Amino acid sequence: MRVVIAEDHALLREGLVLLLSSAGHEVVAVVSTGPEVLPALLTHRPDVAVLDVRMPPGFRDEGLRAALAARAEIPGLPVLVLSQYVEESYAAELLGGGARGVGYLLKDRVGRVDEFLDALDRVTAGGTALDPEVVTELLTRRGDSPLDSLTPREGEVLKLMAEGHDNTTIGRTLVITERAVSKHIGNVFLKLDLPPSDSGHRRVQAVLTYLNKVWGPSGPPR
Amino acid sequence: MTGMRKTVRQAARATAQLAAVAALTFGSYLFITVLLFTAVATLVVVGAGLLPETVLLVRRIAGAKRRRVAQWTGREIPEAYLPVTGPLRARLRTVTHDPGSYADLRWMAAHYAYGILLFLPLLALWPLGLVLDGLWCGLLRRRALVLPLIGRLADLDAAWSTALLKPSPKALLVERVEELTETRAGAIAAHGAELRRIERDLHDGTQARLVSLSMRIGLAKRAYDRDPAAARRLLDDAQDQAEEALTELRHVVRGIHPPILTDRGLAGAVRALAASSGLHVTVSAEGLSDSGNGPRAPAAVEAAAYFVVAETLTNAAKHSGSDRAEVRLARTATALRVRVRDEGRGGADAAGGTGLVGLRRRVAALDGTVAVTSPAGGPTVIEAELPCVW
User: Fold this and answer.
1) B188-256: which CATH topology?
2) Which helix (H) or strand (E) is B44 found in, with range?
3) Are B262 and A85 within 8 A, CB to CB?
4) How many Å lie between the alpha carbon of B62 and the closest alpha carbon of chain A?
5) Cis peptide bond upstream of B127, omega within 30
6) What is the ipTM of this complex?
7) Is the pTM here over 0.90, yes or no?
């Protein structure tokens, strides 16, 4: 697939190019500052964009803003946002336009090459990849919510589901059969009173919408 | 008759006030004798040790007078003295350099005269007043004329004493400098402690992990040819170590300066904090830009404010029993104000609780103050003020 990379740190930039090329992907453009991102994406129309959050000139959230701008210009453009730290509110902003083709991961995750490439594939195919840390934070909110009624296993399934994994991966990760996964997912949806939905981004969206409610009425900041 | 009774009561109150004035005046006569003695003794060195004690005594007398006058007028007279501490030489220097010492002496000398001046007319006013006002007010129901004069005398004493005992702008400045010297020392100590904590975190945590990581990679390289399976295990371990080091590093960084502050400014960061607190939080920010693009408070102040909100929201979520809170940030001419209020059960211990203590220390390091009000039954309100101009 064709990838555009935006990363200001030279070592990481080279590492990413190496990693993606060795996995058989074509890196069509590499940029290192915020303002360069959108033009590069408009010119190359890649299959997926891998963006660092913090970049020159401001070293703030240029990458995130570029991702939002790009998705406004090119609806449905898959973007995988990488960051030195994850912030729930950023996840909320990214997912604000729908969970289709959105990834938000800690940079650390790049080290787990297979998992990273898997997440990239998922995002490119219109799926979702949310960092476990974000999901954990969402799930470990203050109690008195129906989340407490989940069994530990159901909780694990919910977590993996929110990260964007499909039943096969969930089953493999938890070492249970796919049938068991389906059963757990059915229970989770029932307990959380969610409309049953198929696998994929729509399911992630349902789960995130639910967790968003737990986010409270102050909601994700705009 | 009630008019007269009231007049007499008021006059009696004023008399008590003036009697105290007179008593103090007579006391002053005695005291000035002591003072002169001390002064002479100081000159001949023998009594140098007495001087600080004498000054402290003067302060106490002046303090009693301040309270007395405050009772009469209902207005506090502020004090501004330098603390008298340390060895004799330091104490001597303090008492002789303190403008307050001389102000007290001036007041005492003046009071020496006006104390008597104000008291003596009483002796005539009372019999005269009882007769005249008894007729005028008691029988003819007119306004009393003579007895209220006693009140005016007490007013005069209060006015003169206030003018003389009020600290001069210079004394206030001296006191402020003293205070700032103290808080600065505190700030430097807190800063030092903070640096040591960061150093320890990096040394014991991150650095140790990186060393062990490097070691594992070295071992994996050795095992590479001979035992690929073992090499793989070592590399797996190494990767785990690297990830843990990264996680730790992130925590350390967050503790120093939360990255979201840089990205979004205080208002944005606090909103994110509120959104992820699990509580229904309303956030208002007065005079702060919401995007982080406008003028910003100094980074240390923003970080401290952020920690105040983070800590109090965590506490509210954990202990208050309420699911609502309110955060107010306001920029004033001289400070950044943070106020967090929850509608919970209250009873937060302002002194105890490591969270609150740490928070206080962090704020004090910036010469700021934290006020905690948390009556049983709530609400709990934490207010922090961080002096800064931006």
Assistant:
1) 1.20.5
2) none
3) no
4) 55
5) no
6) 0.75
7) no
